[in-house]
Amino acid sequence: MSAAIASRSRMSGSVAMLMTVSAMALLSPTPLLASSIEGAWRITRVAPLSGESSTTARNSLIGQAVRFANDRVAGPAPLSCEQATWETNLSPPEGLFQGNFSQSSHEAAKSQALVHGLWRFPIPGYTLSCSSGLFHLHRPERATLLTAIDGQVWTLQRLSPQLLAANTPESVVQELLENWLNPPAGFEPAALSRVERWLTPKLQRRISVYFSVPGKPDDAPAINGDPFTDSQEALPDSSFPQPTSIHPEPSPAFVCNSLMAIVYAAFSICSKGMATVGKLMTFNIPTVAR
Q1: What is the pLDDT of residue 14?
Q2: N- or C-end of the chain: fewer Cβ atoms within 10 A?
Q3: Looking at the DSSP assignment, which residues form a beta bridge with residue 127?
Q4: What H or E segment, with its residue span, contains residue 66?
């Protein structure tokens, strides 16, 4: 009997350890740092560090490639550099973007970070020191890097092969949306000028005719919203949808569902183990006649 209880105790301890290790693997930020960032990335968003909305044209960086190697970085200045050295780090809200949020309270810094899609702390990342300066790159997800340069936050994405390839349907749509949503705007002539090269001459003429006819003040316009994103209003700057990555990071819902699956598996192991112990305790060993 005592042996059965001891076996059951060891089984419970093993299950608890399994659940703890699995939960830590799902939630820990450190596995991201073990994944290499070498290779090609793409700038998909550029937004003011302050989080304030801006209508200033800032599309020259959008779509440009950044390539990381052990000792150099190739990309737009000033991020392009030689003699690169890397250190890993974990940043609290106040330490993000080279301490730009350090003058704020902890809660205020978290709110500022949320504007740029950062909400799980500490954020894993890298300190890049090279010939052109010192850069902090934050890696909230496996396929996402953020860095602040000259008051702007650059978002870099490691895209899927379909989005990286030239002239595929996926890459064309990706490039159009990157330019249309940087910065987000309504269906207006100034905003449409950013995506003219993706529109046929016939469509451009029809758009010109549409804007040449004045609308009635009390009536909703015929195009009421954003036809490119199928939304009623212009998207805020912080809601720019990120493209599908090669290794998408688990969402909170995925983590919760995974933990529930672990708990269910643990209970199944316990139930089977208890049933086996019960059978052993009630099993009668036959007496061998001598």
Answers
A1: 45
A2: C
A3: 87, 136
A4: strand 65-68
Q: Cα–Cα distance between 201 and 138 in angstroms, integer?
A: 42
Rg, Å, the chain Cα set: 27
Contact yes or no for 131/82 (Cβ under 8 A):
yes
Q: What's the pLDDT score for residue 70?
A: 84
Task: State pLDDT tens for residues 50-85.
Answer: 876 554 445 688 888 899 988 999 999 999 999 999
Tens of pLDDT, residue by residue over 174-195, are: 888 888 887 777 888 888 988 8
Contact 81, 111 (CB under 8 A): no
For residue 99, the model assigns a pLDDT of 87
What helix, strand, coil percent values describe the chain, rounded to 5? Answer: 40, 20, 40
d(CA 70, CA 272): 50
Give the span between the Cα atoms of 142 and 144, in whole angstroms. 6
pLDDT digits (tens, 9 = 90+) for 212-271: 988 888 888 888 888 888 887 655 554 444 443 333 344 454 445 555 555 555 555 555
User: CA–CA separation, 19 vs 15, rounded Å?
Assistant: 6
Side by side, the strands of the sheet bearing 144-149 are: 81-82, 72-74, 65-68, 39-48, 152-157, 144-149, 133-141, 123-130, 85-91
- Rounded to whole angstroms, what are the CA distances from 35 to 95, 122, 130, 235? 22, 17, 21, 32
**Tens-digit pLDDT profile for residues 10-25:** 444 444 443 333 344 4
CA–chain centroid gap for 167, Å, is 25
